[in-house]
Structure formats: C-alpha cells, structure tokens
Amino acid sequence: MDILFKQVRLKDGEELKDVAIKGGKIEAIEKELKVEAARVIEGNGKVLIPGLVESHIHLDKALIADRLPNKSGTLQEALKVTAQLKPTFSKEDIVDRAERTLQMLIKNGTTHIRTHSEFDPSQGFTGFETVMELKEKYKGIVDVQVVAFPQEGILKAPGTEKMMYEAMDMGADVVGGIPYNDTPWDKHIDLVFEIAKKYDKPIDFHQDFKDGPEGMTIEYVCEKTIKEGYQGRVSVGHLTALGALPKDRLQPIIEKMAEAQISVMSLPATDLHLGGRHDEYNVRRALTPIRALRDGGVNMCIATNNIRNAFTPYGTGDVMLTAMLAIPAGHLGGADDLPTVLPMITTNPAKAMQVSGYGIEVGNNADVVLLDTESVTNAVIDMPAKLFVVKSGKVTVETKKSTEFLF
Ligand SMILES: [Zn+2]
C-alpha cells in the first residue's frame, strides 16, 4: 500500500476504520487492516472526509481588494472598481494572484475546483489563458474545471460570442453565462445552450443575483434545460432573488428546478457582503433559500465566489469558512440541518460537477482530507485544521499544529 490511514472516523456513531490507498485509488476500508504501507498515518479517531470541492471561484480577479476599495459595498461599485482595475492586470500579475489563490485552496483541503474565467473583447484572453495554464500545471494536485465566463455579457459586448467559441476550442470545460447582465436575456440563455450542445459540455450560469424578485430568469433556464435534455448538467450560482419570493410563488419554481435537476451554488461570502445594501433597517440576508431548495430535492452546494476583491473583501481559501457563514445566515445550525452542510462542500458539488470516482469507497479516487476533529457532524463548525490532504493517492499537504498554554 502507498498510504494507510489507521483508525479514522468516516461516520458518527460507527466504529473507526482503517483506509488503505494504492495506485491513486482507495484499495480497502476495514475495521482493521493488517497491511504494509509506505506511509502510515495515525488517525486516532479523527475524521476523514473526501476532498473539499470549491464549485464556484474566480481565480483571475482574487487578491486585489487593497488596490482600489469598494467604499459603498454595493454590487454597482464592485463592478465599477473591478472594471477600472482590469486594464492594469498584466499576465504576470494574474499568474501571481491566481496561483497564490489556488495554493490557498489546496492548503485548505480542496481537491476539486470549478473556476469561472472571464474574457471580453477589450481584455482578450490573458486571464483565461493563465487559468488554463495553471490547470495543467497543477494536474495531480487539484482538478480544475474552467468555465468560459462572459462577465460583461455576450450580446451587449460585440465580439464576445466569437470568443465563447474560441474559449471552448481552447479547452474550456464548462459554458458560462450571466443572463442578468445581458440583453435580451432569453437570447443569451439560448446561445449558451447552443454552444454547450455543440461542444457537449455542461452549463454554469451566474443567475438572478438581486435582492428582489424582479426580472428572474430561472424558470426559463429550467424550461430550456428540460427541452434540451440537459437535466443534471446545469448549475446556477447566487440565485439570491429566489429568496425574495413568498412560499406560494417559490414552491412551484423549486419543483421545476428539481425536475430539471439543476444544481445551485449559494455564495454567501459575496451575497452577504453585497446584498441588502439599500435596506436601511431589517437588512435582508439576500441569500438563496438554501433549506427550501434542499428540502425540495435540489442539489444544494455552497461555494466561495471571490477572495479579497471588491465583491468579497475577505476569505482565506477555506470553503469551510464559507460554509460556516451560511450556517447562521441560512438557518442551517439546527440539529437536523447541520449534518446537511458538509455535503454541500463535498458530495453535492462533486455531483454538480459530474466528478467521477468521488467519495470514500473502495475503488474510488484517493482524494481525502484528515481533519483535526472527531465529529463528522461538527466538522464545519469546528473549523478544523486539515492535517493531511491526499490527492490522487499522494500526500499533497501536511499541516502541523502546536499550541501550548503558557499560564
Ligand atoms: Zn461568480
């Protein structure tokens, strides 16, 4: 064996297990394995989870918060400030920031990433190419899916439609879209589906990012998904406007979303920062209705979106921190809710991203993280250190922690 984890916890209330890894795969899981291994890691009852999945992140515009502040904290100023900064990004600058961000994610136990990489006719493909290069460079350390993302719209930014096809030819894994930043929005959605079908790739929309319910297009996305036979291959991020609907209007949309098998990435780090900025009292949380979607059978994920820029001026690269934000904000701290949070940053986004061989089962890929906690239920709220990260059967990160009381 290459690696043997001794006595780790896979589920609360179950006996501890040994987990053996060989040739990049999980070879055996037993109460006690009497096998030789090149590296033996003592679990001592600590929790072993499948690698964390960061299903919505912008690597190319991370770590720029200190360059030009977003003083109002609104989406409008975030867009303005970022548009001002973009022309100053050199290739070296993007490489440096994107790679540092990627390493922050890896350090925190992330083994799978979906990143939205943007381009437009005035900026060209510099950021997109950089992210594609990093994807190659980090093969075997982290799996990166790159979304071809038309941040400035497709139809209202002439030349972008051609660039969408070029990005797919350059190897993008997913077709991105942003109906709320384009007009006409239905043509935008149709075009994204047309490109996705041509290249046989999944779709990931930035969707209905507003405090109020006006101008939502999620129902059209559902209809289109079903019509095109794209069930299970469409994801949407933000979807905050859905949180503004009363139950009688919300429920039929959730049913439609479940039927279309659409996955949702809630992005609380950004949504809580930018949302409700025009409310003077009883400020809205401006999140997608996580519990209602989950209970309605929608595949619910939590992701980070941005780290330290005008949209999200904080973040450490730990998706557990993002999930922690969602716990009080999304009322997910109850006894029945808390155990559903860890899957929102592991198995659910793996499903949304159609990752094969994911999860701690014999024969699956050996992508696992040993956490410094003994409770699976409390794994997120404990904010544990990621003691060992294993990707494709190799230890990629080891964290050593030492604290002493000096009183
Ligand atoms: Zn985003």
From TrEMBL:
Pfam families according to UniProt: Amidohydro_3
Molecular-function GO terms, alphabetical: deaminase activity; hydrolase activity, acting on carbon-nitrogen (but not peptide) bonds, in cyclic amidines; metal ion binding
Gene3D superfamilies, alphabetized: Metal-dependent hydrolases (3.20.20.140), Urease, subunit C, domain 1 (2.30.40.10)
Signal sequence coordinates: none
Keyword Protein biosynthesis in annotation: no
Every Amidohydrolase domain range: 40-396
UniProt keywords, alphabetically: Hydrolase, Metal-binding
Protein name: N-acyl-D-amino-acid deacylase
Organism, scientific name: Neobacillus piezotolerans
